[in-house]
Description:
Layout: E1 4-10, H1 14-27, E2 30-36, H2 39-48, E3 59-62, H3 71-81, E4 90-95, H4 100-107, E5 112-117, H5 122-130
Parallel strand pairs: 1-2, 1-3, 3-4, 4-5
Amino acid sequence: MKKFETLYIVDDDDVYQFIAKKTIEQTGLVELIKTFSNGKEAIQFLESFIDSPELLPEIILLDLTMPVMDGWEFLENYFLLKPNIGKQVYIYIVSSSVNPIDVQKARNISEVTDYVVKPITKDKFIHLIKNL
């Protein structure tokens, strides 16, 4: 199975960040996991390293409901950056929302690889990676 260099977790819940990071580390499939508490922090980080694609993630796990900049706003800003990102980035919406409107909206966005309902488990993560 392919191993990935970098994964971002963009979620305002510190406990979830910790648990998700530990869960993903247990798979041994990702070298570096960076966490961000809102979409704005993640976008600013992407912007600051846009000329260094090796520092950018291959995978982003994105929550929808966050303060400052939510997941939908993150995606709007990401669309503007995407032409300058020199690598394939897989974005997964990872949300506690089971609202069919959110799920359908996410699936209609070409940059969103899939919609996953929290929590992310070791088995769910491995399944996501196998399907890439």
